[in-house]
Amino acid sequence: MPPAEMKFFILTLWISSLISIHCQIITLNGAWRGTINICDKKPSEDCNNDMNFNATVPGGIYTDLYKNNIIEDNLLGRNDINNRWVGNQSVIYVKNFKVSDNFLKARKIVLVFDGIDTFANIYLNNHMLGETSNMFLRYIFDVTDFIKKKQNQLKVIFRSAVKVAEDLYNEQKNYYVVPPVCVPKEYNGQCHINHIRKMQASFSWDWGPAFPSIGIWRDVKLISVNDILINDITTDIRKENNVWNILITIFLEATQSKNEEFTQISCHIASILHITQNKFISNISEVVLDASKKYININISLIVPADAVENWWPNGYGKQHLYYLTTTVTTANDVLFKRIRIGFRMVQLIETSLKKGLSFFFRINDIPIFIKGSNFIPASIFPELGAKEDTIRHLLLSAKETHMNMLRVWGGGVYESKLFYDLADEYGIMIWQDFMFACAMYPMSDSFLKSVKEEISQNVIRLKNHPSIVVWAGNNENEAALYGNWYGTGSAQVYREDYVKLYVNLLKREMEKLDLTRPFVVSSPGNGAFEKTYNYTGVNPYLNLYGDVHYYNYIRNGWDITQYPQTRFCSEYGFQSWPSIYTIATAIENIKDLHIDSDFVKHRQHQPLGNQYMLQLILYNFVVPQSNDSIRDFASYIYLSQINQAVSMRIQTEKYRQTKSEVNSIGEGMTMGALYWQLNDVWQAPSWSSIDKEGRWKMLHYYVKDFFAPIIVTSHLSISNELSIYIVSDRLYTLTNCTESNKAIKVTSFWLDAFLSEVGCGTLESAKRSCIAILSLTDKSGSLIAPINYIYSDALKNADIPVANITMKTKENHLPGKLSNYADFKIVLSTDKIALFVWLETNIRGRFSENGFHMFVKKKEIIFHAYEATTVELLQSNIKLMDISNIYNAYT
Ligand SMILES: *[C@@H]1O[C@H](CO)[C@@H](O)[C@H](O)[C@H]1NC(C)=O
Ligand SMILES: *[C@@H]1O[C@H](CO)[C@@H](O)[C@H](O)[C@H]1NC(C)=O
Ligand SMILES: *[C@@H]1O[C@H](CO)[C@@H](O)[C@H](O)[C@H]1NC(C)=O
Ligand SMILES: *[C@@H]1O[C@H](CO)[C@@H](O)[C@H](O)[C@H]1NC(C)=O
Ligand SMILES: *[C@@H]1O[C@H](CO)[C@@H](O)[C@H](O)[C@H]1NC(C)=O
Ligand SMILES: *[C@@H]1O[C@H](CO)[C@@H](O)[C@H](O)[C@H]1NC(C)=O
Ligand SMILES: *[C@@H]1O[C@H](CO)[C@@H](O)[C@H](O)[C@H]1NC(C)=O
Ligand SMILES: *[C@@H]1O[C@H](CO)[C@@H](O)[C@H](O)[C@H]1NC(C)=O
Predict the structure, then answer these.
(1) Whom does it interact with, and what assembly results (predicted)?
(2) For site-directed labelling of 309, which of 292, 472, 491, 700 has its Cα 20 to 30 A away?
């Protein structure tokens, strides 16, 4: 398309010569000064009240005070409690800065805060600019009249979120209580987070500590404006009759010049989609803006023939093609341009009638996709650290490498950073995006609803260009809490009315204006489209015949596949385990803490009865070693907790995958999604995560790679001892005559006991104690096309497991690293007997190609992918090896 091409080159010349003159940005990130009253730190002693400290923006009070040695390491020992006084204080952040004459020449200057946590009054040169009260909002202040030549002072005075929440609760309870009144005592948390618009998990959760943070957690900048300021550019992309229709909307603020009553601003707008280096599709528009209106939206449309671009695909289905779209707005005094990145993909949530109930599955580019993934909690309990590139990249890559195609950004955290969604776009990780409401009732004051309305509008506009986001969801478990009376709301009508007010009348309706290119579900778990028929409350949201389900059971044996629901979509399910002892070691103050009954162990477990549940679940399948060496016992216990989690999750996930193409006699099944709880951690504690706080993969994460593989061979043992074998394929082609494309098929069924009696393992009893069945699926040439799988015919605590002597040799470091810039190492393992759950661990950063595996052969080679520089010798001496026989044998 030659004309577009030419236009583009003209534009670039223009931009490069003009942009620096007409639009300037001054960052106010970096070094600030802070002040906090420290009398509450040690109330009994004299204190000189206010203490100054060096602050960082983006930042937060807990990280700042630690860097200034005013408080101890927040994540060490019980410091979540020792440092709690911090969250009760008022804090002042100050920045002194200069601006140039040239900068001040602009008609208007705005101050932009991308995120303030949470309650602050903002002053420039002692003039109050405004107040903030919602952590999820961007705030823009017009500072034209208050900014000076030379020295300026920006001051942000924060009030304690704990105190504000308490005040709001006390005010509200004059009318009626909006529960929960507080979190369970095991959380060591703060109360009333539901009254404020702040990361709900920052007042504690069952997997995390309370750090009621305060700070400027995202960027701050000054922007000089002449005619217009572009706040956002969004795209709505739809496919109609073989063309992609892109509706581009430019959200502007116009500047009215001081002397004139109203101004008309002529704008020339050009949008260019860059297809290849020399192929573009563009459109232009001329509009006259009425500057007496502050906020103005302009639309421009681009028609893109479907065959001119490549589709964006989820991980496992094709490439993640992404395209840049540049929009330039030119006025008499401005040339502004913004580049965004988009992808072309269609998303549909299919809820059509089945024999009973409705289906619930995602169709991307017309392909039904079995959703495989996990739930993402904030990457740090300190919001300012939640967008650290190495952390986010590691977590999302760990999702991609284990065949995940979706993460659910859970409603108790934050709307994540641009980096997070950019990487999700690049890795093909679809995002189920909750709005930030979780496990609570919420107040309905006008100010609260107004704030929420602005929050959803801003965040949807900020995020909707990302092709990775495929569904919006109103809240986490709030319908379930109401239905199940979790917080004593009983049959009171007011809570049901409030629920509908917030999630249906406000959120759902707003979403109909903000984004109709994606589906919206009111709650997770929920009954999807069925909810409308009963006005969204009053029916069990966990119905297997509709929508999504969350399933947890800590009473039954996690290895018993018959307990798991046959559901349309399981969006949460999980089991706890302890993180690596190396990770725990970064949190303990005393070696005595490494004891199964230590105060540290109790302190870190927030789930009521969590430690008892975990022990009982392990005891279904293993004996827990007890000796005179408590550290070794603790290490064995951690190991067993990880095995139990890994195998339970494997079996549960396989159940969901087995029922992909079948329904049972009561119409349950056609399962099309498995998102386990949870991917990551915020501290060193027992939790449901598969990756711990230090980024280490637990055994579960190694297992995820197998049980989410595109093709699996898997078994189902019924209560009556009937063993069925399934082959499940997410591939869109047929590989052998027993893998059908995109289907789960039951290939055979037989009585397990009869089978064991026949295979020559002796009597049935001895066969059960001494045989593990191996499932392998090969193609005609004999190559494996699915990960090896196992059937444990009896609890392993009853098995005769020989004592294995496993030796390990780290071989070479000539291998170029495949997953990082560092070397890969070959590790050769030898054993004299079969060995179960062979587990390698090291404090050198990196991961193994596989781990937690069984050895039925004498030799096995695996790879260690290093994430830091190391040597053969260091690695050899730093790897610890465990297997099941070994943890018991140590004591005999
Ligand atoms: C605070 O910053 C100043 C100026 O950069 C520096 O001299 C001082 O050492 C810092 N104080 C602390 C406690 O880091
Ligand atoms: C912080 O304030 C809350 C609410 O007023 C109060 O319950 C708590 O005891 C205070 N905590 C500390 C450590 O001062
Ligand atoms: C822009 O498009 C949206 C969606 O079609 C429409 O609601 C809105 O009125 C349009 N705005 C203008 C200024 O044309
Ligand atoms: C440019 O915009 C006009 C007006 O909306 C539209 O009719 C036309 O199809 C657009 N052209 C392209 C190439 O998108
Ligand atoms: C749902 O609400 C509508 C409108 O308020 C009402 O007409 C209808 O009877 C309600 N349905 C149920 C099942 O409560
Ligand atoms: C545990 O007991 C064994 C045998 O009685 C003894 O050799 C060993 O030193 C003891 N270990 C510890 C840590 O006390
Ligand atoms: C499929 O398997 C059956 C039985 O094992 C075999 O007889 C048949 O030839 C196979 N078909 C194909 C197309 O490979
Ligand atoms: C384990 O195997 C290694 C290497 O084969 C051998 O040197 C060692 O003596 C064995 N250890 C035991 C306890 O059998």
Answers:
(1) Monomer.
(2) 472
| Residue 735 beta carbon below 6 angstroms from any ligand 4 atom | no
Q: Which two tokens stand for residue 21?
A: 């003159």
* pLDDT above 50 (res 6): no
Query: Looking at the predicted structure, is the pLDDT value of residue 890 above 80?
Result: no
Q: Which residue has the tokens 């390491």?
A: 73
% of the chain residues with pLDDT over 90 = 87
Q: What pLDDT, on a 0 to 100 scale, did the predictor assign at position 889? A: 78
pLDDT band at 259 (very low <50, low <70, confident <90, very high): low
The pTM for the full model equals: 0.95
- pLDDT tens digits for 457-506? 999 999 999 999 999 999 999 999 999 999 999 999 999 999 999 999 99
Quote the ligand 4 centre to 3 CA distance (angstroms): 15
* Helix (H) and strand (E) counts in the chain: 20, 42
Give tens-digit pLDDT for 25-55. 999 999 999 999 888 877 656 666 789 999 9
Based on the domain organization, do 429 and 315 belong to the same domain? no
Question: Which ligand does the CA of 886 lie closest to?
Answer: 8
For residue 813, what pLDDT band results from cuts at 50, 70 and 90?
Answer: low
- What percent of the chain is predicted at pLDDT more than 70? 95
Determine if ligand 8 sits within 6 Å of the CB of residue 748. no
Structure tokens at 821: 């810039």
Question: Tokens standing for 279?
Answer: 């192929």
Task: Find the mean pLDDT for residues 363-373.
Answer: 98
Question: CB of 497 closer than 6 A to ligand 5?
Answer: no
From the alpha carbon of 805, which atom of ligand 8 is closest?
1
**Best mutation site among 628, 636, 891 for ligand 6 pocket (most ligand atoms within 8 Å of CB):** 628
| 5: in domain | no
Residues 469 and 542 in one domain: yes
- Return the SS3 of 377: coil
What DSSP string describes 489-541? -TT-HHHHHHHHIIIIIIIIHHHHHH--SS-EESSBSB-GGGGGGGTTSSS-T
**Does 4 score more than 50 pLDDT?**
no
**Residues 257, 297: Cα–Cα separation, whole Å:** 19
- CA 283 / ligand 4 centre spacing (Å): 6
654 flagged as catalytic: no
CA of 867 to the centre of ligand 6 (A): 37
Distance CA 866, CA 816 (A): 10
Instruction: Confirm or reject: Cβ of 748 under 6 Å from ligand 4.
Output: no
Ligand 3: residue of 297, 300, 510 to mutate (most ligand atoms within 8 A of CB) is 297
The residue whose C-alpha atom lies closest to atom 7 belonging to ligand 5 is: 535
In a domain, 17, yes or no: no
Nearest ligand to the CA of 31 is: 1
pLDDT at 748 over 70: yes
* Whole-number pLDDT of residue 261: 65
Burial 622-649 (b: 16+ CB within 10 A, else e): beebeeeebeebbbbbbbbbbbbbbbbb
Q: Residue 246 Cα, ligand 4 centroid: separation in angstroms?
A: 10
Centre of ligand 1 from the C-alpha of residue 30, in Å: 13
The number of the ligand nearest the C-alpha atom of 246 reads 4
Amino acid at 454: E
Q: How many whole angstroms from its chain centre is CA 714? A: 28
**535 touches ligand 5 (CB under 6 Å):** yes
Looking at the predicted structure, is the pLDDT value of residue 12 above 60? Answer: no
Given a cut of 50, is residue 540 above it in pLDDT? yes
CATH number of the CATH domain containing 42: 2.60.120.260
- Residue-number span of the structural domain to which 215 is assigned: 25-221
The span from the CA of 495 to the CA of 622, in Å, is 45
Q: Is 72 assigned a catalytic role? A: no
Select from 35, 54, 69, 70 the residue to mutate for testing ligand 1; criterion: most ligand atoms less than 8 Å from CB: 54
Q: Which of 744, 766, 798 is the last residue of a domain?
A: 798
Catalytically annotated residue among 253, 351, 572, 654: 572
Residues 453 and 561 in one domain: yes
Tell me what pLDDT residue 739 has: 75
Q: Is 54 in the pocket of ligand 1 (CB under 6 A)?
A: yes
Q: What is the CATH number of the domain that holds 245?
A: 2.60.40.10
